[in-house]
Amino acid sequence: MPSFDSLTDRSTSLLILNKPLWALILLGGLAIALLVYARAPAPEWPQPDSARAVRIDTVTEVVEPERLRLAGLLRASEQAELAFLHAGQLSERRVKRGQSVLAGDSLALLYNPALSPGLAAAEARLAETNTQLAQAERDLSRTLDLHRRSLVPTEEKERAESRRDALRQAADQAEAQRREASELLDVAHLRAPFAGTVTEVHIEAGEFVAAGQTVLVLVGADGLEVEIDLGAERAARLNPSQPAQVIGPGLQGAVHARVIEIGQARAGRPARVRLALDEPPLHWQPGLGVQVEIAFDQAPALGVPLAAIIDPGSGRPRLFRVEQDRAILVPLVLGSMRGGLLLVDGPLAAGDSIIVAGHGQLLDGETVRVLR
Questions:
Q1: Which residues of 323-360 are buried (b: 16+ CB within 10 A; e: fewer)?
Q2: In whole angstroms, what is the distance from residue 129 CA to residue 330 CA?
Q3: CATH number of the domain to which 355 belongs
Q4: Which residues, at least 6 apart from 3, have a Cβ–Cβ distance to it below 8 Å?
Q5: In degrees, to the nearest 5, what angle opens at C-alpha 88 toward C-alphas 82 and 90?
Q6: Rounded CA gap, 204 and 50, in Å?
Q7: What is residue 340's three-state secondary structure?
Q8: What is the residue range of 311's domain?
Q9: DSSP one-letter code for 191
Q10: Rounded distance between C-alpha atoms, residue 345 and residue 62, angstroms
Q11: The CATH number of the domain where 125 resides is what?
Q12: Closest CA to 346 of 298, 305, 302, 300
């Protein structure tokens, strides 16, 4: 019977002899697993989308006229700053501020010591010349009678006729001087050129008045108009009798108006435009502030949504145009708003697709994906 030691030694030796066999089995299994894994198809992992998502709109051709609203001031259709043609002393002011007057009423009187004596002298010269002319007419009549009877020579008759003709011309000249002196004296009366209201008084009685110095301001009682200022470019596009709308306080709708006068713009000064109101409300008075809306005809232009513009206040405005799924940077020149769109000038055409959202960090030429 074998001993315990002998059994133990035999089992240990068999285990030691079988170790290479187990290693070969393990290596073979690993090789088979690697071969199966290599022949299996690679898994398809989702790839990230590099295109930036954007929203687009289109470039629109704008054909509607440009509408401009400007602040204006009501004024009377007739108003004048009245002054004397000659210097002198204001001897009398016959009206007060706020007083209503009729056309031809005397408003003020000027005293000039050279005016009244001038008229008196002209009238005296005219009277003297007329007396001499009458005497020359009588002398000529007697000379002609004597000449017909051959009692005086022809030379005497001709001298009498020449003296009569010279006195006639002198009488005409004296009459013209008298009318001139009379008119000069008449302009010493400041008269109302039209019916209206005295709104301002600049000179009081007893004060010295220079020639052409404003004495008072007269505003007409009939008709209202409004004045606005326009730049040279817009004023050149206005037409006489062009319609407009005037909006004022205390009025729900608008009052129709028309252009009646277009001024000339100068360096540093806009053009003054006057518009007549067709039927102004009764409570409207000169000096009231109103809003004037005018439509200017303009050639068709390209308009884009304001959201498409990048850096509009930087001096280099631009937008992105979409071409073949790429964003193309386009420089622009900005215009005014019309019909909710911003007028632009640049390498664009009506119908072009432009980006209006998602262009915050977009680069020129970058691939984009349009969201529907």
A1: eeeebbebebebbeebeebbbbebebeeebebbbebbe
A2: 90
A3: 2.40.420.20
A4: none
A5: 65
A6: 86
A7: coil
A8: 54-65+300-370
A9: E
A10: 12
A11: 1.10.287
A12: 302
Taking the C-alpha atoms of residue 115 and residue 183, their distance in angstroms, rounded to an integer, is 10
Same domain assignment for residues 252 and 305: no
Buried b / exposed e over 177-209, threshold 16 CB at 10 Å, is bbeebeebbeebebebebbbbbbebebeeeeeb
DSSP 3-state percent helix, strand, coil across the chain (nearest 5):
30, 35, 35
* Residue 215 near residue 108 (C-beta atoms within 8 A): yes
pLDDT of residue 214: 92
| 169 part of a folded domain | yes
Q: Which helix (H) or strand (E) holds 235?
A: helix 232-236
- Number of domain units in the chain: 3
Q: Give the strand order in the sheet containing 196-201.
A: 79-83, 214-220, 196-201, 100-101
What is the Cα–Cα distance from 218 to 195, expressed in whole angstroms? 9
pLDDT along the chain (372 residues), means of 10: 45 50 66 61 52 87 80 86 88 89 89 75 86 89 86 87 90 86 77 88 89 90 84 81 84 83 83 86 83 81 88 80 90 83 88 88 87 80
Identify the domain boundary among 296, 329, 353: 296
Backbone angles phi, psi at 112, to 5 degrees: -135, 115
∠ CA(248), CA(249), CA(255), 5° rounding? 30
Distance CA 177, CA 216 (A): 30
- Which H or E run includes 197? strand 196-201
CA dihedral 280, 251, 284, 223 (to 10 degrees): -10
- CB atoms under 10 Å from CB of 78, counted, come to 16
Q: Count of H helices and E strands in the chain?
A: 4, 23
CA distance 257 to 254: 9
Kindly report whether the global pTM for this prediction surpasses the value 0.85: no
Q: Is residue 40 part of a domain?
A: no
* SS3 label, residue 315: coil
* Inside any domain, residue 29: no
